Structure formats: structure tokens, C-alpha cells
Amino acid sequence: MMRVFIADDEEIIRDGIRNCIEKEQERFLFAGEAPDGEMALPMLMEMKPDVLITDIRMPSMNGLEMIDHVKEQFPDVVMAKVVRRTMPWLRIVFLSGHDEFEYAQKAVSLHADAYLLKPVSSAQLLETLGQVAEQIEQEQQQLRS
Fold first, then answer.
1. Cα 113 from Cα 138, distance rounded (Å)
2. How many CA atoms, within 13 angstroms, populate the side-chain half-sphere of residue 122?
């Protein structure tokens, strides 16, 4: 079962994502939530969820800054494959209400697994989570081989 954590400053977005995840209990488990990156960061480091769904723009600490801080905990991380071996527990799905190239470019540089524009439908979110789950399963099989 894949554990999903949500970081978004909009309560209605967090509620919608949480409800979507809870309806798919056989595949996904809601692991927690926070209204900004500053609150989410220590929770992520403690809980080590499989997937982080985070807004890019939030008060205090935005999603991009939060991922930078996570990577600081692992200073040798440079390439995506190294990220996966060093932090096998974290996949990143960015949400944004802003269709700006700079955000997408930064998300790519942080090795995001997906970048979704708000508003996102339940079907689109679940499809993305399903793809991320498949990636996790494939990597786990490769590590076992």
C-alpha cells in the first residue's frame, strides 16, 4: 500500500485529495497533511511517505524550497538514480495553479515524478498516483534482482 502525504495551503484542495485517496483504500493510504512546507518538512522526514503531493506556491516555505531542504539532508544526491537509491521512499507530485515554465523547469531539476496543473480531477490524480506506484514497484523489483 502506498502512503501519500499532502502539502497545500488550500484546505479545500487537501480535503479533495484526501477524499480521493481514502476512496482508493486498497491501493493508497493517507499518511498526513500540512498547510505549508515548513510544517510538512519535519513530518516528511519522520513519516517517510512513499509520495508527496505538494503545491509549488505556499506561504512560509513553498514546495520547491521544501524539496531543496529534503535534498540537503542527503548532500551527495546529484542524479535521479542516486536520489532513488538514497531516498527510495519519496516520490514527488507537484501541483500548481500557475502555468509558468520556471516552476516546471525547477520541478524537473528536483526530479519530480509528475507536475499537475490545478484544478486536477480525481481521475487524473489517481492515474498519476497509479503511474507513480508502478514506478515504485518496478524499482523495488530491480533492487531485489
1. 14
2. 10
Which residues, 6+ apart, have CB-to-CB distance to 47 below 8 Å? 3, 5, 31, 32
Largest CA distance in the chain: 43
Residue 112: phi, psi to the nearest 5?
-65, 145
Q: Check residue 91 and report its DSSP letter.
A: E
Cα separation of 107 and 96, whole Å? 11
- Residues 14-65 have pLDDT tens digits of 999 999 999 999 999 999 999 999 999 999 988 889 999 999 999 999 999 9
Q: What phi and psi, each to the nearest 5 degrees, are found at residue 8?
A: -155, 140
**What angle do the packed helices 11-23 and 122-144 form, to 10 degrees?**
60
C-alpha cell at position 89: 521512499
Neighbours of 65 (CB within 10 A): 16
Residue 86's SS3 state is helix
How many beta carbons lie within 10 A of that of residue 59, not counting itself? 10
pTM metric for this prediction: 0.88
